[in-house]
Design goal:
Layout: H1 3-68, E1 76-79, E2 83-100, E3 103-107, H2 114-117, E4 128-132, H3 143-147, E5 150-160, E6 179-183, E7 196-209, E8 215-221, E9 231-237, E10 245-250, E11 256-257, E12 266-274, E13 284-292
Antiparallel strand pairs: 1-2, 2-3, 2-7, 3-6, 4-5, 4-7, 5-6, 7-8, 8-9, 10-11, 10-12, 12-13
Length: 297
């Protein structure tokens, strides 16, 4: 045996021993790296799911608050623990003429400004026109007067009328054509030019199960004869059996009300959404909104 072979023999055995030791360590490190990567993916998915839920819940809060903050107590028609039917404002305008007993011409805001024009929707059949009966702005006016201070009529037709109010000082030169609203009998008595009127539409917010099997908070509108298709506003929510969306209408003292009690004062809305890939103790994100109605008792 030469000197060279004596030197190489032991080194081959040493390298094999090192390989046998290094291979399990490498596998262990690779396993730890994969586990760390999977954990990071889960954490990232959980954070993204929570941020998504927060955006959805904030969006729902803004939509519901925008309609309920402007609502009076008598704008709520009926409700259950998962739905709320109310009249929401479509537009406001000034009466510029009453060409017939059941016909009212109105001019609407500054429709020449695209930003302001976007605030006004198109009135239609089935909407409700309301005119104030008296000035109830005096301090100390009783709640009964505030709640019943409007005259109502159901709109049967609405169209732009270019010739309406042509000589009225209420119609600004170059402005959009006034709306001509036809209302159902008996109409509204004693409506005079210069009066402020509002147009409201029956809308329903409700929790429903969509075709994909998920639950959503949706909104639909009444067109005078039927409800429109429900459009999802936020979701998916937890199922109704898990209180994904809950409504509670109360008096000022917190007493729960049912059906369409005129003593409504507060509306409490609760929304819950499942959290994606969460390991937290509470596997959902929630939102609680409580709003006071104008003129509520």
């Amino acid at each position: 045996m030469t000197a060279t072979s004596r030197l190489l023999g032991p080194r081959r055995g040493s390298a094999l021993l090192e390989l046998l030791v290094a291979l399990p360590l490498a596998l262990l490190m690779a396993g730890l790296a994969v586990q760390l990567f999977v954990t990071q993916l889960r954490v990232t998915a959980g954070i993204e799911g929570k941020l998504h839920n927060q955006r959805e819940l904030e969006h729902a809060a803004m939509m519901l608050a925008s309609e309920l903050r402007a609502a009076s107590a008598n704008a709520l028609e009926q409700w259950t623990d998962t739905s709320l039917v109310m009249r929401t404002s479509v537009l406001s305008g000034i009466v510029c003429a009453t060409p017939a007993p059941q016909v009212i011409d109105i001019v609407v805001g500054d429709t020449g400004d695209p930003l302001r024009a976007a605030l006004f929707a198109t009135p239609g059949a089935g909407d409700v026109l309301a005119a104030p009966a008296a000035d109830t702005s005096n301090p100390g006016a009783p709640l009964s007067v505030l709640n019943d201070s409007s005259r109502y009529a159901v709109i049967t037709g609405a169209q732009r009328e270019s010739a309406a109010c042509a000589t009225s000082p209420l119609r600004r030169a170059g402005s959009a054509s006034p709306w001509r609203l036809t209302v159902a009998p008996p109409g509204i008595a004693s409506v005079a030019p210069g009066e402020l009127i509002t147009v409201a539409r029956r809308t329903e917010w409700r929790a429903y199960r969509a075709a994909d099997g998920e639950y959503y908070l949706g909104k639909r509108e009444w067109n005078g004869s039927a409800w429109s298709i429900t459009q999802p506003a936020v979701g998916p929510l937890l199922p109704n059996s898990q209180a994904g969306f809950r409504i509670a209408v109360t008096r000022a003292d917190g007493t729960l009300l049912s059906a369409s009690d005129p003593a409504a004062h507060l509306v409490r809305l609760s929304i819950r959404m499942a959290r994606v890939a969460s390991t937290a103790a509470a596997p959902y994100d929630s939102l609680l909104v409580q709003l006071a109605l104008r003129g509520g008792q």
